[in-house]
TrEMBL record:
It comes from the Bacteria. This is UPF0102 protein DXX94_08360. Pfam families: UPF0102. It comes from Thalassotalea euphylliae. Belongs to the UPF0102 family.
Length: 124
C-alpha cells in the first residue's frame, strides 16, 4: 500500500513561507530572518530591500473564496504586525523613526505544488 503524506497546516505554512522567501530573493531582497516571534505576534519574513527594512506577511489560500489570501489580513492583524515590527526594531537597536520600513504581503493562491504568487509592496 502506498502512503500519501497528509500536509498539515503547519507544513503548508512552512512551505509557502519558503516559496515567498525564494520569490523575494529572486526580486533582489535579502531575507534577514523568518518567523520572528514576540509577545505581539509573529512576522513571517523580515527582509532588506536596499535601505528599506521590509516586514512581510505571507498568506496562502487554495481558492479565492471569501476574497482569497489578501483579504485574510484584517485590520487587527495589521496592528499586531506593526506592534511586532516595532518590537523587532527595539530588539535590533534600530530607531523606528529613522529606519525606513514598509509592510508587504506575499499572497500565494492555487495548488500548493505550484501556487500563483502575488507580491504587494506597501500593502498597509
Amino acid at each position: 500500500m502506498r502512503w500519501i503524506k497528509q500536509l498539515t497546516t503547519k507544513n503548508i505554512g512552512e512551505q509557502t513561507e519558503q516559496l515567498a522567501a525564494q520569490h523575494l530573493r529572486e526580486q533582489g531582497l535579502n531575507c534577514l530572518t523568518c518567523n520572528f516571534s514576540s509577545k505581539y505576534g509573529e512576522i513571517d519574513i523580515i527582509a532588506q530591500d536596499g535601505e528599506v527594512l521590509v516586514f512581510v506577511e505571507v498568506k496562502y489560500r487554495k481558492q479565492a473564496n471569501y476574497g482569497g489570501a489578501i483579504a485574510a489580513i484584517s485590520a487587527a492583524k495589521q496592528q499586531k504586525l506593526k506592534l511586532c515590527a516595532s518590537f523587532y526594531l527595539q530588539q535590533a537597536q534600530l530607531n523606528e523613526y529613522n529606519t525606513p520600513c514598509r509592510f508587504d504581503v506575499v499572497a500565494l493562491q492555487g495548488p500548493i505544488e505550484q501556487p500563483n504568487v502575488t507580491w504587494l509592496k506597501n500593502a498597509f
